[in-house]
Amino acid sequence: MLDLKPLSNMYSIEEEGAGVSLHYSKNKNRFWIDGWVVGKVAHITLLFGLLENGHVIEKEIEQVLKGWELKEVEIEDISYFDSPYNDEDYYCVVARIKTTEKLLEGHRRLEFLPHINTFAGYKPHMTICYLDKSIGEGGRDATIKEFKKLWVGKKLKVSKINIGNAPTD
Predict the structure, then answer these.
(1) Which of 93, 69, 95 is nearest to 83 (CA)?
(2) Predicted structure pTM score
(3) Residue 31 lies in a domain
(4) Residues 6 or more apart from 105 whose CB is under 8 A from it?
(5) CA gap 35, 25 in Å, rounded
(6) Minimal CA–CA distance to 1: which of 32, 43, 41?
(7) pLDDT digits over 71-99, tens only?
(8) Do the domain assignments include residue 167?
(9) Which domain holds residue 124?
């Protein structure tokens, strides 16, 4: 993953309200479904589906990314997708990140490592939040419209490469 420095107005919506109905998973195995995530762990995934935990293959990750660096990314659009879980009703709101040659290079380098392509095509994005479906389509669309006004075209600084959580026994 690439950790990003959120924009100053990405930190406080959860605390301040803003009329957003957020969704928090009750299933501990879905710890990432955690309401307003952009202010907590703003990141984009460079490659999903590594067969080993990043900490187990840290040296290999360092080797394939040697000499590669990305300083910033740009928000191209804001969109959403529906929950893939039957027992969780939410919209996952994401900032689609402009796909650049430099970003694709980092993704392609990591593809040399053992992985499974779970999703067709690389679609770089940063999760903003999980909206409870009780907000309705109108609430969802109004929220996305507001986020578009705030963030489309904005650039976020890359703070570091993040290899994920350490494995637990």
Answers:
(1) 93
(2) 0.88
(3) yes
(4) 68
(5) 8
(6) 43
(7) 999 999 999 999 999 999 999 999 999 99
(8) no
(9) 2-161
